[in-house]
Write a structure and sequence with these properties.
- The protein contains eight helices and seven strands.
- The strands form two sheets. Strands 2-1-3-6-7 form a five-stranded parallel β-sheet, with helices on both faces. Strands 4-5 form a two-stranded antiparallel sheet.
- It has two domains: 13-124, Rossmann fold; 140-178, Arc Repressor Mutant, subunit A, CATH 1.10.10.60.
- The chain has 183 residues and is of the alpha/beta class.
- The longest helix has 15 residues, at 140-154.
- This is Global response regulator transcription factor PrrA.
- InterPro entries: ActR_PrrA_rreg, CheY-like_superfamily, Sig_transdc_resp-reg_receiver, WalR-like.
- The modification 4-aspartylphosphate is found at residue 62.
Amino acid sequence: MDDGLVEIGEDNSLLLVDDDAPFRLRLARAMERRGFRPIPAESVAEGLQVARDTPPAYAVVDLRLEDGNGLDVVEALREARPDCRVIVLTGYGAIATAVAAVKIGAIDYLAKPADADDVEKALRTRGEQKPPPPEHPMSADRVRWEHIQRVFELCDRNVSETARRLNMHRRTLQRILTKRSPR
């Protein structure tokens, strides 16, 4: 195709793992209209079951689910089907988790709320294409927050160790971690 997107292909199975039922259903309907065959799952356990039983060609996995971490589903999908094109969705947008997702085999990550057009474009974009530079780069506050999140993830989400490495008081770090990310 000349638009830079790959064809969906004969196997159009798309695993959608998200614990937000309205979002999952809306995305499933929208992706079905775009030629995919959605397989909804609301938990890590359901996602892992699908990955083992019938690994899909495509997957959209929420990072934080009620019963665990969506990265476990990403790993299971890559083991069961290395050619599976996986996108990670996150409402938290931390660079550290996005890097972790890509390292274990996700092809991209999107911040929520992502619409069906964004999801389809990410699933179908060729691997060698580079995304355009952001129109609105992160603010300095956001960069600081992302750095803290990255160190927190690298310290296995240990608040005390993260605070020590950042030379920050533990309570200050806890307050920062409970707040939403700055714009």
